[in-house]
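Researcher: Predict the fold of MATE family efflux transporter.
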Amino acid sequence: MPGPAKLTQGSTFKHVVYMSATGAFGLMCMFLVDLVDMLFLSMLGEKEAVAAVGFASTIMFFTISLSIAVSISATALVSKAVGEGNIELAKRRAVNVLAFGIIFSSAVVWLLWPKIPHILLSIGATGRTLDLATGYLQILVIGMPAVMIGMIGSGIMRALGDARRAMYATLVGGLVNALLDPIFIFAFGLGVQGAAIASLIARFSMVAVSYYGVVHIHKMLGEFDLMDFFKDVKPICLIAIPAMLTNMSSPLANAIVMEHTSSFGDDAVAAVAVIGRIIPVVFGGIFALSGAVGPILGQNYGAGRFDRMRSAMSSAVIYAFAYCLVLCFCLYQMQDWLVSVFHATQGSADLIRFFATFVSFSFFFQSLLFIAIAVFNNLGKPFNSTLLNFGRATLGTWPLITVFSLFMGAEGILFGQAIGSVLFGCLGFYMARNYITELEAKEASEIVLSNNLHGYDDIL
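Model: Structure tokens for MATE family efflux transporter follow.
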């Protein structure tokens, strides 16, 4: 059985660090396997194989983003119910979000699978690169319901403050993938398709771990009731749909970047694909920040602790700044090794070095946007997150990378993205701070009004 709302007590900085570190470790393990995929495939001596996974990853990021969106709904609804002390409601919401996720992800697979070649062609994949990317995606997309279940299970455990067990699902998935990769890629000689099969098996291993944590450890799944499910569809969708739109903006930005990059040739595409694998491994602690801050905000919002909500935001900023400072320095020092280990051509190497030297610290400003998104998703304004992320993906991406690439070439694409992150990160954080102040003022006025009404009743 879940215990008390432990995120409403103790140091908010400690909670942020612990929740982020465990979330980051799980994410980095998962994305490290993608990085190893890229490393193994680069050993095949085919730049088309590396470019194919780069194109395919743009689409996979879209499907994973949908899973993350539904898990955000699970975290927000369950954490608020736990903060209010209503465990039965938390259990009901948990099982209904899970049912919603399975139905939704199965529908997405059914719609997406036959259109994979056309989608890849539309973002610039051609020739052998298109064929390899299509084969890779047609295998991997089948595992989307498994990813959905694993993500929702992790979201439920994070809502309870059990970040350690939430980490185990992605950790086990990463280990299984890492063990199977060389077997399917090299021993069976399956190449790109082998990498996809290994990843598919790993996704199903995530389901087993998540199920064990949610059901056997926390006993957090209530009995499924169809009428309760229909009651909960609305609150689930009110968070999940804006969160989906919010998360889809990132694949949109990636697709815009990939389309622009393809005009500079396969060397540039391969470099962006390698950078895309490096980013989640190096900046996993930043990507985990939104998922870490969300449960802290949700439980304290349910408990009416606005002071701790503001403290959690400040703690998250301090954590993000220190994290980026250390990791960006490490990335700068390791850039030559990365160029060597991925067998990068001269054109690819120049882009990788440019990212490590000039662009990487922009992820601190992206962390401000992640914090803002956590605030709006968990405190009742998810469409604000959508507007911010779509703003970054469109106004903060396309015009900037178009202009800067005219003057700087392929490097301008990376630099334009960085400028967009700075602008929208600062804007989002400012909006989020103001929103918490508004919520506190609204609750205070409601308390005063309630007290006045009680006083009037006493007189009568």
